[in-house]
Design a protein that fits this description.
45% of the residues lie in helices and 12% in strands. It is built from 45 helices and 24 strands. Helix 19 crosses helix 20 and helix 27 crosses helix 29. The termini are close together. The structure holds adenosine-5'-triphosphate. Adenosine-5'-triphosphate binds next to helix 3.
Length: 920
């Protein structure tokens, strides 16, 4: 499975649940997958057909979605196509029936209307699964019910033994059951992941419609475009789409639009241009949304309250799909809230109407919320035990003025109860404000004692309080037939029973902008400086020259994508390019090692990328095979369903080195000083193309300290095991040599176990005017004799007793150590005379015995060839270290073995994990 993942998708690890879901599908089980937007559900149906070599049929609701997926899959070397009314190639259906596609997309209409003959031909060849993407469209209780989806159940009879897989990001329990029933799933394996998109910032503001606001919006979007990346602006009407689109164009922003009144061709064109990075902003109605998988969308704006909370989650889910911190802002006006009837017009049954009203009400509550927005979203989707504050929504990050509103809450709750818990918010508020409308007089509410007691406050003020009381659980909002009803909840009744007309328990609530009437505050953008965060993260972890290289690679990718007629992200993502800019691979093997590089990219465009990297790096004076690519936006936080999701820590910025040290040294210093990793861990970091000596890492950190980088000397001395005795020996040796310009003569005077890191540390401390006692006060200073200290100090000293090269250039510049980036260092006598020294690190005794046994059986020199090496590797399930390989194939030169390993790695025939070479 991992081989397939790397080969076709370029990823080295599965995301949570993916592997388990794939395993169940391969076992032939039906599966229902409910996981967050952008969590990688598609991979669950894309991997099985590649493993069993049988077509997967995928039902997808939108043509544009299918076309995007087919385009991206083809760039991964996967045979994919679609059958729909838009398919112009008449041969596709015939080819599909003969089982030649790995993945075949179909619209639901086509799947239900295509001949039984087609299915029986395809069944003969073998169908690995039938996936129904966006499966919530099956349910009338879903937010996006599609009649065509309802027919899909009949496929069960045609494909009785094919595993059915339903996938969606938005399904309540009711919808989940509906999906399983409709697809006639049997004993389905249900996987429910967390809905939390932790890399997304959520914010809401109310606004007043007008040119002024649109101008501000345009100004804000232009900031995002200039600094961070793509933006989508969702509007609720076509008129809004056109107005904002025109304003963006006037401001010189490259924008496109997408709505239902555009012709098919114009929409397709617009969609294609956006995903191909030809323009930066897409202004659209919700017709544009579901399934869009452009990974680098940094900003999703909703201009108007969305029609449901589910569609808000879907649409905002287009943001930050590469896991990088991104923002979702929603702007609403009160007038948005009266659109319920408009949305309900789509309903064909009472239950559907109720479902639409409920989702719309939830969206309104989301707008008016003063508590954590993420919690509200997660609670809505049924996630349990969600924290009260997420720290990455506007309500958690901005402090609002608060005030004791106990008297007003008492009045409103009492009024709702006195009116019989039978109305929306308007009636009880009108009563409080002293209205004598016909309705009020007829119901005799003007006789209530609280009639007119709240007339000094505006209706909007009371409504804002009403929404707060709903979100704090004092009031409950429900739908009766098609009307919204607000009633007093048990919590509200408890509040009333502990209150008297002139004395209520304190109830402190935030003063919202509706309450303070602070229009200006309401309309202001970017208060929390979110854009600065987005801008700084784009180049996070890159030096200035590397950032330039990254931009040039983005351009190169764009040119390449244009030449082959695809979207740039389909070739490789921005994160992968960033890693290429950091690592600057000089060989295909090194390029293959980078996360996100798949075999198709490597074989088709690998040479092109390597050439570009070499050329551009030279222009920018950057060394090749530089830093390790450790900028992965990965998975850190687990939530209730134990789905770890994507980190939000990407907002932090890595301090840039202000003094000149090589990238390798800076990286070593950063990992040791900032990440707190040991020299051993840094030397063997999995992200490193090849391990390096621990002493080399220690040397880098010491050199960084000499350049003024802050380090914890006590920790360093402890880790390298520099004792008083060792220091004494070194001082004596320096005196004897009479100079400290060269390290080797000093080392020659010292016992074997005193290494270059010890000498470097002593000399650096001298240069910096520090003493051992100062760093480690007496009592804390290791003081054993040099010949005894190995047990007491660290493994480091005993392991690093190999002679190492500390005087030469940095790791990336070493002439021989660079060949295939493997685990050796050159003896101090110089590269010519030097035997290579290998780490025996991960070699277990039993494995070594096995190697020796094989060697004894084969006393003749064994030469490494592609097939002999692959055959030999078959003996070892857990991989073999480089030293083992060289030991076994002693009939071949080291250089030729390196070369061979590089080629096999590039061809994805072997892979390296934890310094061990494994057969794929
Ligand atoms: N194991 C993985 N490692 C890294 N990236 C992955 C992995 N699996 C999927 N991805 C990437 O994550 C992104 C989102 O995946 P995908 O389109 O499958 O999401 P989804 O769950 O279907 O979302 P939605 O419901 O919003 O359509 C894609 O760009 C995909 O390539």
């Amino acid at each position: 499975m991992e081989y397939t993942l790397k080969k076709f998708f370029g990823y080295s690890t599965f995301r949570p649940y993916q592997k388990e879901i794939i395993e169940k599908i391969l076992e032939g089980k039906d599966s229902l997958v409910v996981m967050a937007t952008g969590s990688g559900k598609s991979l669950c149906y894309q991997v099985p057909p590649l493993i069993v070599n049988k077509t997967a049929v995928v039902i997808s609701p939108l043509l544009s979605l299918m076309q995007d997926q087919v385009m991206a899959l083809r760039q991964r070397g996967i045979k994919a196509d679609h059958i729909s009314s838009a398919q112009t190639d008449s041969r596709v259906q015939h080819i599909a029936a003969s089982g030649q596609f790995d993945i075949l997309y179909m619209t639901p209409e086509k799947a239900c209307s295509i001949s039984n003959n087609f299915w029986s031909n395809l069944l003969d060849k073998g169908i690995s699964l039938l996936a129904v993407d966006e499966a919530h469209c099956i349910s009338e209780w879903g937010h996006d019910f599609r009649v065509e989806y309802k027919q899909l159940g009949k496929l069960r009879g045609i494909l009785p033994n094919v595993p059915f897989v339903g996938l969606t990001a938005t399904a309540t329990e009711k919808v989940r059951n509906d999906i399983m029933d409709s697809l006639e799933m049997r004993d389905a394996c249900v996987t429910i992941g967390s809905f939390d998109r932790t890399n997304l910032f959520y914010g809401v503001k109310s606004f007043s419609r007008g040119v002024l606001f649109v101008d501000e919006l345009v100004g804000e979007v232009s900031k995002c475009v200039a600094t961070a990346g793509s933006t989508i602006i969702y509007c609720t009407t076509i008129k809004d789409v056109q107005q904002i689109f025109e304003s963006l164009l006037k401001a010189g922003i490259k924008a496109g639009m997408y709505h239902g009144q555009m012709g098919n061709k114009a929409r397709e064109e617009s969609h294609r241009s956006f995903i191909r990075d030809e323009f930066d902003v897409m202004v659209a109605t919700i017709a544009f949304g579901m399934g869009i998988d452009k990974p680098n969308i940094r900003y999703v704006i909703h201009y108007g309250c969305p029609k449901s909370l589910e569609s808000y989650y879907q649409e905002s889910g287009r943001c930050g799909r590469d896991g990088i911190a991104s923002m979702c802002w929603l702007y609403y006006t009160k007038s948005d809230f009266v659109k319920a009837d408009f949305y309900c017009a789509e309903a064909s049954s009472v239950s559907q109407r109720t479902a639409i009203m409920q989702s719309f009400m939830a969206a309104q509550r989301y707008c008016m919320l003063t508590t954590c927005r993420r919690k509200f979203l997660l609670d809505y989707f049924g996630e349990k035990n969600t924290p009260d504050k997420c720290g990455t929504c506007d309500n958690c990050t901005t402090s609002r003025k608060e005030s004791d509103m106990s008297r007003e809450a008492f009045l409103l709750i009492s009024s709702i109860r006195s009116c019989g818990n039978n109305w929306g918010l308007n009636m009880p508020i009108d009563v409080l404000r002293g209205s004598r409308s016909k309705k009020i007089v007829n119901a005799q509410f003007d006789k209530l004692p609280l009639h007119g007691l709240g007339k000094e406050l505006s209706a909007n003020w009371w409504k804002a309080l009403g929404y707060q009381l709903i979100s704090h659980g004092y009031l409950t909002e429900t739908i009766r037939e098609t009307f919204k009803i607000v009633s007093v909840s048990p919590k509200g009744l408890k509040f009333l029973s502990s209150s008297k007309p002139d004395d209520q328990p304190t109830l402190v609530l935030p003063v919202t902008s509706e309450m303070s009437g602070d229009e200006e505050q309401r309309n202001k953008f970017g208060e929390s400086g979110e854009f600065n965060g987005l801008a700084s993260q784009k180049y996070e972890g890159l030096s200035e020259a590397e950032a330039q290289l990254y931009n040039m690679l983005v351009e190169e990718r764009m040119k390449l994508a244009r030449a082959v007629g695809t979207a740039p992200y389909a070739l490789c993502g921005d994160q992968t390019l960033k890693k290429i800019a950091l690592m600057r691979p000089s060989t295909k093997a090194r390029l293959a090692n980078i996360d996100g590089v798949n075999q198709y990219l490597l074989t088709k465009y690998g040479d092109h990328f390597i050439q570009s990297v070499k050329c551009l790096s030279e222009r920018l004076n950057l060394s090749l095979d530089g830093r390790t690519a450790d900028i992965q936006p990965t998975i850190t936080k687990s939530t209730m369903h134990t789905v770890p999701t994507i980190t939000k820590s990407t907002m932090h910025t890595v301090p840039k080195p202000d003094r000149k040290i090589t990238p390798a040294k800076y990286e070593a210093w950063r990992m040791w000083h900032e990440d707190g990793l040991s020299f051993q861990k840094i030397a063997n970091a999995p992200s490193r193309p090849a391990p390096i000596q621990e002493t080399t890492v220690a040397g880098y950190v010491i050199e960084a300290a000499l350049e003024g980088y802050e380090i914890d000397w006590a920790r360093l001395l402890q880790e390298i095991g520099l004792t008083c005795e060792i220091s004494g020996h070194i001082q004596t040796a320096i005196l004897k040599v009479g100079s400290k310009d060269k390290l080797k003569p000093i080392k020659d005077e010292l016992p074997e176990e005193i290494n270059y890191a010890h000498i470097k540390a002593c000399l650096a401390m001298q240069d910096l005017g520090m003493s051992l006692e100062e760093v480690n006060p007496p009592g804390h200073l290791p003081s054993c004799r040099a010949d005894e200290h190995c047990n007491e100090t660290s493994e480091f000293l005993s392991k690093s007793s190999h002679p190492c090269h500390m005087e030469g250039p940095c790791e990336s510049e070493r002439p021989v150590g660079n060949i295939a980036g493997h685990n050796f260092a050159v003896n101090c006598n110089g590269p010519d005379s030097a035997p290579l020294v290998y780490d025996d690190d991960l070699l277990s005794l039993s494995k070594r015995q096995k190697v020796n046994a094989i060697k004894e059986e084969n006393p003749l020199a064994v030469e490494a060839t592609e097939s002999s090496l692959l055959n030999w590797l078959k003996n070892y399930n857990h991989g073999v270290s480089l030293s083992d390989i060289l030991e076994h194939f002693y009939g071949s030169s080291e250089a030729s073995v390196f070369e061979l390993l590089s080629c096999l790695e590039s061809d994805f025939m072997i892979f390296k994990k934890n310094n061990l070479y494994n057969l794929m």
